[in-house]
């Protein structure tokens, strides 16, 4: 019997977590039992370090790739949803396929439901601080960051999260 890990993150709201600012997310293929982990870092304006730009660097850890760890996959420009692959990403290679998967997942997260679980690392997806409170660990955001994300997106907590456990 296969163990299925349910995500506590509503996959249809993937963009809220992915573009939160400093997230580390794991996509687990429930059918194959494989996974990929991505780190996403939002760039700041060089002149005004408090100004966040709609530009995100994506680093990917591939299964079985212990030689490299996290590799730079590319840059995603959120305002146009354009992907610029990293210079070391081979056309048609595994890292290229992962970046294309991520772009497809961001464009249509509903296509992943039931096949993919979305998990977070235990650090706030917005500020990357270690989460210590059980409720924060379940949500993926510290309380202040969660308020900011919900207010910016005009969402409620039930929009972002699924109940752990049962169906």
Describe the structure using short key phrases.
single chain, 167 residues, alpha+beta, six-stranded antiparallel β-sheet, 5 helices, globular, disordered N terminus, disordered C terminus
Count of helical segments?
A: 5
Strand content: 25-35%
* Main pleated sheet: 6 strands, antiparallel
The number of domains: 1
How many β strands by DSSP? 6
H/E order of the elements? HEEEEEHEHHH
Mean of residue pLDDT?
84
What gross morphology would you assign?
globular
Query: Unreliable runs, pLDDT <50, ≥5 residues?
Result: 1-6, 163-167
Query: Over all CA atoms, what is the radius of gyration?
Result: 16 Å
Description:
The protein is α+β, with helices and mostly antiparallel strands. It has one domain. The chain is 24% helix and 27% strand. The protein contains 5 helices and 6 strands. The chain has a 6-stranded antiparallel sheet. A hairpin with an 8-residue loop joins strand 3 and strand 4 (70-77). Mean pLDDT is 84; it is low at 1-6 and 163-167.
Topology:
Blueprint (H helix, E strand, L loop, with lengths): L13 H5 L3 E8 L5 E10 L7 E10 L8 E8 L4 E4 L8 H14 L8 E5 L13 H6 L3 H11 L3 H4 L7
Antiparallel strand pairs: 1-2, 1-6, 2-3, 3-4, 4-5
Put the structure in a nutshell.
The chain has one domain. Helix content is 24%, strand content 27%.
